[in-house]
Specification:
This protein folds into five domains: 10-123, Ubiquitin-like (UB roll); 145-216, Ubiquitin-like (UB roll); 225-374, Domain of unknown function (DUF4445) (Nucleotidyltransferase, domain 5, 2-Layer Sandwich), CATH 3.30.420; 381-418 and 543-659, Nucleotidyltransferase, domain 5 (2-Layer Sandwich); 428-532, no CATH class. It has 17 helices and 30 strands. Helices cover 28% and strands 22% of the residues. By secondary structure, it is of the alpha/beta class. Strands 1, 2, 3, 4, 7 and 8 form a six-stranded mixed β-sheet that branches. Helix 8 packs across helix 13 (600-610) and helix 11 packs across helix 15.
Amino acid sequence: MAEQTPAASEENADGGKTAHVVFTPSGKRGDFPLGTPVLQAARQLGVDLDSVCGGRGICGRCQCSPSFGDFSKFKVKSQEQNLSEFGAVEERYKSKRKMKEGRRLGCSTFIQGDLVIDIPEDSQVHKQVVRKRAEVRNIEIDPVVRLHYIEVDEPDMHHPSGDLERVERALKDQWGIDVDRADLPVLQSLQKALRAGEWKVTAAVRNNHKLVYVWPGFKDAAYGCAVDIGSTTMSVHLCDLHNGEVVNSVGAMNPQIRFGEDLMSRVSYVMMNPGGDKEMTKAVRETLGFLLVQAATESGVDPNDILEVVLVGNPIMHHLMLGIDPTELGWAPFALATNQPLRVWASEIGLDGKVNPGSRAYFMPCVAGHVGADAAAVTLAEGPQYRDEITLVVDVGTNAEIVLGNKERLLACSSPTGPALEGAQISSGQRAATGAIERVRIDPETLEPRFKVIGADLWSDEDEFAAATKKVGVTGICGSGIIEVLAEMYLAGLITTDGIIDGSLASRTDRLVAEGRTFSYVLHRGEPEIRVTQADVRAIQLAKAALYAGAQLLVDKLGKPVERVVLAGAFGSHIDAKYAMVLGLIPDCKLDMVASVGNAAGTGARIALLNKKARDEIRATVHRIEKIETAVEEKFQQHFVEAMAFPHKTAPYPNLRAAVTLPEPKVASDGNEGREGGGRRRRRRG
């Protein structure tokens, strides 16, 4: 909905009442039907209001502060009765998580009249510390587009021919290239380029037969972009097509987060909101266009010099970027519109004016319904198909994509880990931004913690820590931090094998605090207080069990144990291998055979950008990957249940035990029995 001029509540075209709503501090405003949720109104106006749970009243990220009074500046009279009453969802959230006085949940608060609503800073989608980067890798440079400088014959009355025909002849004579096709943008600018260059021009040719563009004079700069459209983070790597150098890397949060943190929430949004797919397509295309311009501008590169874009992403991001309704991916049999690689005009996906008019966008192939082009790109980058050892490649995200095998056989599946591993669904969780706790250690004797936050290099028990974090603060805990604190709590005996916070240890430390029928561990005292709750432990158990179960299912199918593990993804690159294995996030193998490789999907996209043979290679590889659908595999549930324990209920983990002293299995003591999630009764339910 476009911004509109202020007006009092009035009837809309359908005869229904509308209200005028102004959001501050952005100043964005619009008219909405009575009964519209505040979060929905904010989304429609593009207001920066966070939402992790997709509007289910769980995360509390969409808190807003209604302002009441007569706002002559906006010509709005904002009254308390113009909001719906405090509802059960808000009461439940406030009683469990607390909420500042006067705040409301945007997803559960409905517009009943004209309003002015303030979006607090802590409810805005903060700029994340984007950790996706192009990893160093030797790539044979052989791009699909190359530049060729030519000298073209001038027009001759005695030998009439078109300018294009003489360019084609020059390419044949001077480069041995048989051009048989030319894009319309070439013809639209060709004659001016030839005359401006005094019949000396540089031609961009794709695959040695298609003329893409012509510049006057000599030109040796040509660029392409490798794009990873993650469900949380988008990254763009601007590359020199001549030498493969990554000229610039930029990133941003995926704007679709406001429609739902996880992928299925976004599919649900499409199902429940006609036209929702178009909203999300528009949002992601606009952000990609912005990133392309940003990458070029920061590097002093003319966007007209960007001749190729390669894109990877999970199937839902893939479909939405292409403008394809992803609804079919929301239920079995999870049918893709296509799993073939695609090449379209960049202008067809909203990039006109951001790149060369002749630029193409190449989408790498998806593997299966929930194993996307990003998994194909990771496979291309890491090359398990060329190795002798059995390699497990895990692209860690809200939906883990898993590939297992070697040069003889490859299998793949996806596993619904959810956003907990990235800090969402955690009581004090946040994305990996400045101030987030990312490293944790707990003294097994005193049970006292120490930690590091993003943006500061000191541990919390060092003298200068307070001064070093005065500006950034301690704001929450991100994915790598929650992994480490839970693993450290387990190693220190604070958490049992079955994932119960052992309240009997409260006699040894005041860090353990009773919370109703369970206990919490206080990691940071202050504002805000950061605790690890029993619910947090359960959320991580569910996520890690799903990931392990998917991996183990592939191991069962292959019939051979894992010999090497590769953790990929923006989050995967910051997981400590030891702690990942202590929690049982991945199957057992030698710790020195576990590698974190960063944004391998972006690296795979860069390989496909810079080497045209790689495109044929990954297409062939994807065709021979065996797809396993976890939803229909009986053993998945068994693996999932057993993987709920730390590190695992039955797997012995001999390699881990050789490197780390694990605590003896125990259950919570009598002082903790009867609490929710405690004792044997809970275990039998699992």
